Each structure stands twice: as structure tokens, then as C-alpha cells.
Amino acid sequence: MPELPEVETVARSLEKGQGSEAGILNQKIIKAEVDWAKSVATPSLRLFKSRIKNQRVLRVGRRAKYIHIQLSEDALLVHLRMSGDLLIGRQPEDLGKYSRLRIYFDSGQILSFNDARKFGRVWLIKDPSEIYAGLGPEPLGKDLSNDDFYLALQKRKRQLKPLLLDQSFIAGIGNIYADEALHAAQLHPLSIANQLTRADADRLLQSIRVVLEEAIRRNGSSIDWSYKGGEFQNQFAVYQKTGEECPRCGEKILRIVVGQRGTHFCKNCQALL
DNA sequence: AGGGAAACCCGAACGC
DNA sequence: TGCGTTCGGGTTTCCC
To answer: Residue A222 belongs to a domain with what CATH number?
Structure first.
């Protein structure tokens, strides 16, 4: 399992306080309860409940947007999608009305997967490499050099916005951070990847890192009612700022739709290449 | 290969 | 007050 800085998803899951993952370390699972069957992507519900029993938590990490909870026999992977959260409590009734799945430990602690919109999924799997197989490099850490990134961009004739959201190209960037990183790098979301100069590519990778690291530091973004712990929304330059002034040049922020995703940018400082 | 669209979800925020 | 509609997040799947 990769040892990497946490991204938004982990920051969100751990919002109850640093070390909440340490609170379940080495503990033994005694049972699992599942209210929303579809939240278990694999295996079958029956197998999930029987197989997870008696396993211990060895470590907690992350790959792309997956939280990786390594158990004695299997890996428990959690993808929060947009409204998911991981909470730890001692009473089921403290876990809120959107608790979809609960894992009980012998210590009396309960790990709850909450998800108002039922988009998130968990996997209990011996070898998670098949799930990780299609993922691109991590933008944080040393996984990706400036050379690698420039070369990868050169090979693609694709608009930057959908490319940044493509988890097989680069892992871990969501819609908010794609818009913010492109603005920070002064690149138009519709510019074509192989048109970027080396300097553009360097600036883009640097911007992705700055944006993600700052977002992690601020526990992610709270953009609606479903997650309240984040602070990064207070730093948005363009995301959901349609019609407001660009913090760099004062031009009005525009909103377009690219690949069915809302896309916010400043046409003055993000010129189309 | 790349792009577009639909499907999966549901509470909030709107319009009437 | 109460209906109906739209929205948006990430991913997969299908189709051009």
C-alpha cells in the first residue's frame, strides 16, 4: 500500500480528528451491519459480512480517491464519491441518519460509512490491484516527475479539463480541483494537452500540487449541506464563482459545461492555446 | 482515441 | 403550503 500524503477524501474521512484511523488500528472486527446493500460493491453481502469478521486493522492509507484499510486477510477499500464520509463512534444512534454500513470492533468502537446520496462504495478484496490497475500516477509525492507529466501531455490530443478528471491519466483530481488548478496555472480548460509548452506543463503540475495540498490542509471543500468540515471553499478563485471577479485580473468568471461538468474559468487570464 | 450522453442518487433550492 | 423541477458530485457504460 502506498505511503502518500492524504488527499481530500481521506481528509474528509478523518475530519473527526487526526488519528481517528489510529483509533481502529489493530482492533478486531466482530461484525458488520449493512443498511444499503448496494454500498458493498464486492463481494456479495453475505460473503462481505462473514469474511470481514475476525480480521484486524493493520494500517490505513490511500491510493487515488480510494481509502485503503488493510485488514489481516483482505483490503477494505472505500470510495466516498461526493457525499460519503467515514465516522467513528461508540453508539449506532450517534452516527447520523445516513449511516449505510457499520463495522463493529471488539473495543466497542464503530466505524460507519455514511452517505446521503448513496453514491459511495466499499470493496472487500484480497488483492486490490485489479481496482488500482487503471489508475494513473499520484500528483503528490514523487510518483510523477515534470518530465513524465510533460511527455504524457504531449501524447494526448484532448481537452485539459476532461483529461485532468480522467483517473487513468492522473489520479485523485475532482471537478473543483481541476478548475482551481487550471486557473492557478493560467490554462484554458479547453486547451488541448499536446499544445502545452514545457513551461505550461510545469506550471500545471505545480498548480495541481499547490491546490491539492492546500485543500488537504483545510480538510477539503464544503460546497453543500452534505459535508460541513471543509474550509477550502473559502479559497476558491473560480469554482462556483460565476459572474464574480477573477481574483487575479478582475474579469468576470465564466461557467461552461465540458464533458457534462460545470467548468469555471477566467477567459482573460486563461487564454485558449 | 476522443467526445457526448445517460444512469446511478437525493436533499436543497428554486418556480409556480 | 405544496407540489414539480433542476442541480451536482464521480464513475461506468454505451454509442457515435
So the answer is: 1.10.8.50
Check whether residue A55 and residue A110 sit in a common domain.
Answer: yes
pTM to 2 decimal places: 0.90
Task: Evaluate if the CB of A162 falls below 7 Å from strand B.
Answer: yes
Q: CA separation (Å) from A130 to A125, A134, A172, A256?
A: 10, 8, 17, 35
Residues 6 or more apart in contact with residue A133 via CB below 8 angstroms: none
The reply to whether A272 falls in a domain is no
Residue A53: C-alpha distances to residues A28, A110, A249 (Å): 8, 14, 57
Same-domain pairing of A172 and A258: yes
| pLDDT at residue A96 in the model | 84
A22 CA – C12 C1', rounded, Å: 33
The residue range of the domain holding A221 is 146-266
Catalytic residue among A28, A203, A209, A261: A261
Task: State, as a whole number of angstroms, the distance between the CA of A19 and the C1' of B15.
Answer: 46
Strand C bases with any atom < 7 A from protein Cβ: 7-12
According to DSSP, the residues that pair with A113 across neighbouring strands are A86, A101
Q: Is the CB of A260 under 7 A from strand B?
A: yes
pLDDT tens figures, A120-138: 999 999 999 989 988 999 9
